[in-house]
Amino acid sequence: MGFKCGIVGLPNVGKSTLFNALTETAAAAAANFPFCTIEPNVGQVPVPDPRLYKLAEIAGSQKVIETQLAFVDIAGLVRGASKGEGLGNQFLGNIREVDAIVHVLRCFENGDITHVDGRVDPIADAETVETELMLSDIESLERRVPALVKKGQGGDKEAKVAGAVLGRALDVLKEGKPARMVEAKDEEEARVLAQAQLLTAKPVLYVCNVGEGEAATGNALSEKVAAKAKAEGAASVVISAAIEAEISQMDPTDRPDFLADLGLTETGLARVIRAGYDLLHLITFFTVGPKEARAWTVEKGATAPNAAGVIHTDFEKGFIRAETIAYDDFVSLGGEHGAKEAGKLRLEGKEYLVKDGDVLHFRFNV
Ligand SMILES: Nc1ncnc2c1ncn2[C@@H]1O[C@H](COP(=O)(O)OP(=O)(O)OP(=O)(O)O)[C@@H](O)[C@H]1O
Ligand SMILES: [Mg+2]
Fold this sequence. Notes:
Blueprint (H helix, E strand, L loop, with lengths): L3 E5 L6 H9 L17 E6 L3 H10 L3 E3 L2 E6 L15 H8 L3 E7 L15 H32 L3 H18 L12 H9 L8 E6 L10 H13 L2 E5 L1 H8 L6 H7 L6 H12 L2 E7 L3 E8 L4 H8 L1 H5 L1 E7 L1 H6 L3 H6 L4 E3 L10 E6 L2
Bound molecules: adenosine-5'-triphosphate and magnesium ion.
């Protein structure tokens, strides 16, 4: 499957620090100088899900395997990037390849850490980054739209649709708004928009990187970002990347006390990961047995055979049916046996749309 969230932002705002905390490694060099990162770092991150641990406990599973989400640590971007400034176009290509954007904004005051524009202002920073992404989209559409329109006039129906919807996207961008504001009129337009790989059409999560003492409460700057996100229909999360990096290096048994001292019940990372998961419209289903309990990822709207295919292509090809138990039934009835006795094990066919939390067992024939 491989859904990817790209970590984007100005240089030296804490992107690599966040990435290292997420991946519990020091794979990405994080240091106090701009453009520390050049080549993108990719890491698979397990998605923490309390439901999975509960299912494993009930079934007495020996092994627990979380589903994963990929994060990519991308080079910092500066004003003029779309025209080749800083590391320029190269990293814009890295952003093009991701499915969602995790936009890190510096909300911590610390005179020792260089800010490329010499002042801490997350709203202005967000606009700088977004402007570069919009300029890059405008440039790419200005190249593509006229050719599509011409082909459309020549009788090519597909080109006509693409020219129309991408032309509207260009107008929206020229008004200073991101391409995600463009509404597709039908499924065909939606497909064209999705395939156009516009940077500003990707869903965004703002991550407010606050000071070490502010992780639980946020601060005045993170509140401004939250208001901006709300106005745009985007999501935002408050974390302190510095603290998260520290926690990720601690022994797991020491973490709960440390978090409690900071006034936190869970790590900021768990919230970032889950928000990323929601952003991508992903849902989880489970397979549960005495050997292992495992979480798997599908897109909302996936059918039972699609879900089977995530486990193995043979499961999809030879799909017969999916024995299905809702998560709540599995838990309240004490597992598969109890659910079956109570008539809560359903036999679902090829058309079934998988629901978040379903416990599935596939019957197949190859
Ligand atoms: N919440 C925070 N509070 C204080 N310092 C922080 C915080 N988050 C990160 N830093 C520090 O900021 C500096 C820059 O961090 P990092 O290298 O992660 O930035 P980056 O965004 O990856 O930069 P680049 O774009 O240059 O790769 C590091 O010295 C890091 O320790
Ligand atoms: Mg970096």
